[in-house]
């Protein structure tokens, strides 16, 4: 997966939906989107 694949995933969604997704991910013990993007960029 390239960095551009990650970026395209963020574009279409309203911020409220992304905030709910982050809360859901956090409640399941998954990293936040920003942590995933940061890790992808550091690779």
TrEMBL record:
Q: Output the GO biological process annotations, alphabetical, semicolon-separated.
A: regulation of DNA-templated transcription
* Alphabetized InterPro entries for the sequence: Arc_rbn_hlx_hlx, Ribbon_hlx_hlx
- Highest taxon listed in the record's lineage: Archaea
> Mind telling me what this protein is named?
Ribbon-helix-helix protein, CopG family
Q: Which species is the source of this protein? A: Halovenus carboxidivorans
